Amino acid sequence: MTVSSPQSTVHTLSIYQTARAALQAGISFVPILADGTKRPAMRWKDFQQTRPTTRDARTWFSGKNYGIAFITGAVSGGLEMLDFDSSTAYAEFVACVQKEGLAELLERIEQGYKEASPKGIHLYYRCGVIEGNTKLAQCSLQEAPWVMSKIETRGEGGYSIGAPSKGDVHPSRLPYQLLQGSLATIQTITPQDRTLLLSIARTLDEMPPPHVSPASREIGQPPKKYHRTNGERLPGDLFNEQATWAQILEPHGWTHLKSLGSEDFWRRPGKEQGLSATTNFGGGDYLYVFSTSTIFEPRVGISKFAAYTFLEHNGDFSAATKALVAQGYVEISSERGTDS
């Protein structure tokens, strides 16, 4: 895996040939004006739902000076793009991915489709679970616009200008160049792998974190909850609701590194640098471990109850349940039976 320079590859397909290749690969696209605005040359929202035809491609690109943009999202088979605003941001990301033992995954994505934008790098992949355009890492500036995106995605409802667009399509007049792969070889990754990659990208965010009250992360005995329902929940269900990840992980040597929104980043015991796991990615209250040097299975969502069971009871769920009952994780109903 290398951080390729934009000069390392020369594209061979014309815009029209690229449009034909996109159709064959099941990817929607639109023409882009060659005036530096990066805007579509036509109304493009319709093509978020329906892919263009061969006739559309011929009409739009034959003898025209347009660029091309690929529409991401469900219309293109779950296509998503990771956009690195500079080669420096991409180099930082590559270093983190290698440190976390995910180099093989990134190499597979690069070999599928990697291109140089006028400023940075684009990586395309498909996944069964994607979201809308999302800013993953930003940095502050000393002048307007004050904040600059380092890494972001183009997902559902988005589009990204791609190779071989050139000329006045981008304000810099620099081209988009294909570095590896093709539209036909874009790789499909699992939702778990996507979670890991996006979490690593988030760790490169340089914006100051929002203030969080220390009380919000205190480790203490969770209160009992009283319910007025007839459906009884198990102790593990209550533990998932009431316990915090700090309660579960920190007594076993895990270190909380930082918080971004509701997501937390952790380092495993015995490791002095780098990222080992994330919790609550995308609002899902699960532990995702990157490292293979823990008792947890990597790249799998792990509930609080499961994590507690492996850490405290060597994977014995029966023993873990009994321990939780003793700690008070029992649903108490206000309804009492009466003897007749």
What is the 3D form?
Answer: elongated
The N- to C-terminal Cα distance equals 76 Å
The whole-number mean of residue pLDDT values reads 85
The structural domain count equals 2
Provide the β-strand percentage band: 15-25%
User: Approximately how much helix is present in the residues?
Assistant: 25-40%
Structural class: alpha+beta
The DSSP helix count reads 9
Radius of gyration: 24 Å
Characterize the main sheet. 7 strands, mixed
Order of helices and strands: HEHEEHHEEEEEEEHEHHEEEEHHE
Number of strands: 16
List low-confidence stretches. Answer: 4-11, 209-229, 335-340
Task: List key phrases describing it.
four-stranded antiparallel β-sheet; 340 residues; disordered C terminus
Describe the structure.
The protein is of the alpha+beta class. The chain has 2 domains: about 5-200, no CATH class; about 220-335, no CATH class. Helices cover about 25% and strands about 20% of the residues. The protein is built from 9 helices and 16 strands. Mean pLDDT is about 85; it is low at about 5-10, about 210-230 and about 335-340.
Indicate the topology:
Blueprint: H1 15-24, E1 28-32, H2 54-61, E2 67-71, E3 79-84, H3 87-99, H4 103-112, E4 113-116, E5 121-127, E6 134-140, E7 147-154, E8 159-162, E9 177-181, E10 188-189, H5 191-202, E11 226-227, H6 235-242, H7 245-249, E12 255-260, E13 263-267, E14 277-279, E15 287-289, H8 304-313, H9 317-326, E16 332-333
Parallel strand pairs: 5-10, 11-16
Antiparallel strand pairs: 1-2, 2-8, 3-5, 3-7, 4-5, 4-9, 6-7, 12-13, 13-14, 14-15
Helix pairs in contact: 1-2, 8-9
